[in-house]
Design goal:
Pathway: Cofactor biosynthesis; NAD(+) biosynthesis; iminoaspartate from L-aspartate (oxidase route): step 1/1. The protein is α/β, with parallel strands linked by helices. The chain is about 30% helix and about 20% strand. Among the domains are: about 110 residues, Flavocytochrome C3, Chain A, domain 1, CATH 3.90.700; about 110 residues, Fumarate reductase/succinate dehydrogenase flavoprotein-like, C-terminal domain (Methane Monooxygenase Hydroxylase, Chain G, domain 1), CATH 1.20.58. The two termini are about 35 Å apart.
């Protein structure tokens, strides 16, 4: 069993920092929520690296919201529900599609410069969207532009205090209520940050896999912390693999946006044959899970480690104008997007599951909220629709702040929490080795295609690492590995339980979707282990 806390401590021995709202994480969810909350509250924003290090920064395609005359929230809702493969919450999707456009206007007010054509917001179309509704910035650098604008705002607001290079180890709870967190400072000292509300915005879990589009910081810390604190964690078996990450010697797994296919790029196998017509009527714009598995099938048939993305038939000026970041990054490795076929393969990209919340971002632990990729609001279901993640973060960030503003004050009494598991030994193996082994296990046995045998093998391999929780952990990489191990076990156990294929979860031994038995969620809690939850009618 995974213990409630990663470290032994007595709160009476720790210095206390008091604030109103603690925001953990500095992607779009954390920055936006901190800005909104700062209108009425003092905010402590904690990030384990810096304000510009998050998954948001790498989001290229854009942000999905209805702004065009020929589009409507009803169309956006329908597209989202279709992609989510029967597991979306229709109420959560309604909130997203109806409040998203206002959120985009708020981002513009806060200084985000979206691309404009002929005096109108420029819109593009991505896979599984029925209309052009994706706003973008600097062509393909939308996430970076949003983080730039929001970071500038945060730095100007006097009642947001930012702690860079601080690591949140654990959430402190008493009688099912969250009072804040134990934080390790850059010099190794620990403090108890205490607040009226704690908002978890710690991002995704891409680093569970050897190949990912996510940055180094995406180690599932938020999900693991909330799980240890007793929160309900939902839908962890649904990990989205982006079909087209750059796959080239010496290059990082750089994301090549869905929007490139939206603008006409085609996929070819190593023999140069266009293959998507064999797999789906929407061709290259089929849902991501279908495209990713088609690519893996072609790689296996042809014995290669990649396929090609070909946009050479489009005018070079259009490609350079629309995708300047992708163009320049490929050029650094001697690949010209306008004249070369670009080698790509799937990589772990987005976690659909996470901390289960209601329509106001509240988790099952009082005063603990979750926003962004770390949350499971019910918007994404079994497969996220492209570019819905950024809009989800701003829509639910606003709702969280509305709810925080109505919270009763915390009592002034000091809380008596301590934990002593009698840990004495230090970890025996270097964390970098443990981490790489875990990533390889997850790719091999719990990746794009799964079956009972591979998942049982993954569970067995991961369980061998559980003695780590009985050792004395002191460093960031040790905490990160403990969090990755926790989240990996949740992914594997969820995938083992779900004996069907749906959305981003594909079982070779149960290759069909089974709505009769499996149109429901799998929810994990630390004390009750695993339970099932019926889906609302979609």
């Amino acid at each position: 069993m995974i213990p409630q806390y990663l470290i032994d401590f007595d709160l009476n021995d720790l210095p206390v920092v008091q604030t109103d709202v603690i925001v953990i994480g500095s992607g779009i969810a954390g920055l936006y929520t901190a800005i909104m909350a700062s209108a009425t509250q003092n905010v402590l924003l904690i990030t384990k690296k810096s304000l510009l290090d998050s998954n948001t920064r790498y989001a290229q395609g854009g942000i999905a919201a209805v702004t065009a005359e020929d589009d409507s929230p009803a169309y956006h809702r329908q597209d989202t529900l279709l992609a989510g493969a029967g597991l979306c919450s229709s109420a959560a999707v309604d909130v997203l599609v109806n409040e998203g456009p206002l959120g985009v206007q708020e981002l513009i007010r806060l200084g985000t410069m979206f691309d404009v054509e002929n005096g109108e917001l420029a819109l593009t179309k991505e896979g599984a969207h029925s209309h052009r509704r994706i706003l973008h910035a600097n062509g393909d650098a939308t996430g970076y532009e949003i983080v730039r604008a929001l970071s500038n705002q945060v730095e100007m607001l006097h009642n947001i205090e930012v702690w860079d290079d601080h690591f949140v180890i654990d959430l402190i709870t008493e009688q099912g209520e969250c009072h804040g967190a134990i934080v390790q400072m850059p010099d190794g000292q620990r403090v108890f940050a205490r607040g009226l509300a704690t908002v978890m915005c710690a991002g995704g879990a891409g680093q569970l896999y050897r190949y990912t589009t996510n940055p180094e910081v995406a180690t599932a810390d938020g999900v693991a912390m909330a799980y240890r604190a007793g929160a309900e964690i939902r839908d962890m078996e649904f990990i989205q693999f982006h079909p087209t990450a750059l796959s080239y010697p010496g290059a990082p797994r750089f994301l090549i946006s869905e929007a490139v296919r939206g603008e006409g790029a085609v996929l070819r196998n190593i023999k140069g044959e266009r293959f998507m017509p064999k797999y789906h009527e929407l061709l290259e714009l089929a849902p991501r899970d279908i495209v990713a598995r088609a690519i893996v099938s072609e790689m296996e048939v042809t014995g290669s480690t990649f396929v090609y993305l070909d946009v050479t038939h489009e005018p070079p000026e259009l490609v350079k104008h629309r995708f300047p970041t992708i163009y320049e990054t490929c050029m650094q490795y001697g690949l010209d997007l306008t004249s070369d076929w670009i080698p790509v393969s799937p990589a772990a990209h987005y976690m659909m599951g996470g901390i289960k919340t209601n329509l106001y971002g509240e988790s099952s632990v009082k005063r603990l909220f979750a926003c962004g990729e770390v949350s499971s609001t019910g918007v994404h279901g079994a497969n996220r629709l492209a570019s819905n993640s950024l809009s989800e973060a701003i829509v639910y960030g606003s709702r969280i702040v509305d709810r925080i503003n109505k919270l009763p004050k915390l009592s002034e009494n000091s809380i008596q929490v301590s934990f002593d598991a009698g840990r004495r030994e230090t970890p025996s193996q270097a964390m970098v080795e443990k981490r790489l082994k875990l990533q390889k296990v997850m790719v091999r046995y719990a990746g794009l295609r799964r079956n009972r045998d591979t998942l049982l093998r993954a569970e067995e391999e991961l369980a061998r690492q559980l003695p780590l929780f009985q050792t004395v952990l002191t460093k960031r990489e040790e905490y990160e590995f403990a969090n990755m191990l926790t989240a990996s076990l949740l992914v594997v156990q969820g995938a083992l339980s779900r004996e069907e294929s749906r959305g981003a979860h594909y079982r070779e031994d149960f290759s069909e979707r089974d709505d009769r038995i499996w149109q429901k969620h799998i929810v994990h809690t630390r004390d009750q282990r695993m339970m099932e939850e019926r889906c609302d009618d979609v």
